Amino acid sequence: MSAHCFTYGSLMCEEIMSMVCGRPLQSEPAVLAGHRRHPVRGEDYPGMIAHRGGQVPGQLYRSLDARAFARLDAFEGAQYQRVEREVKLADGSTVHAWTYLFRPALRHLLLPGEWDFEAFLRHGRARFIARYAGFGQIVGDGRTG
User: Are 28 and 89 in contact (CB under 8 A)?
Assistant: First the structure.
């Protein structure tokens, strides 16, 4: 069985998402209403929380299998919980997709303001890839720590 995944931070980069999932992936633009993303203190990635009236632009990856979601769950770690939400596509249609919300107990780690994807691409992307470069090998051999 396969399912869709909505990403809103570092995983919007197809290169990073493909590394995490262990296979080449392509995405399409999507928007999640009723949420907001914030920078995480000391990190290059954001955290997303429910927020009435908010809207988060992101990327939708279609038809991921259980193996890809197991790798994503390990990658996202204890800071996030996977939840299903309805996202809107560029053509106005909607689909259900899994996404990762920042855990409420860790909300104090979120900084005020909107996380900036363009700034991530300019300044954080290379640092992020270098920091998580070994993730594929860690997941690939069955270890998650």
Answer: yes
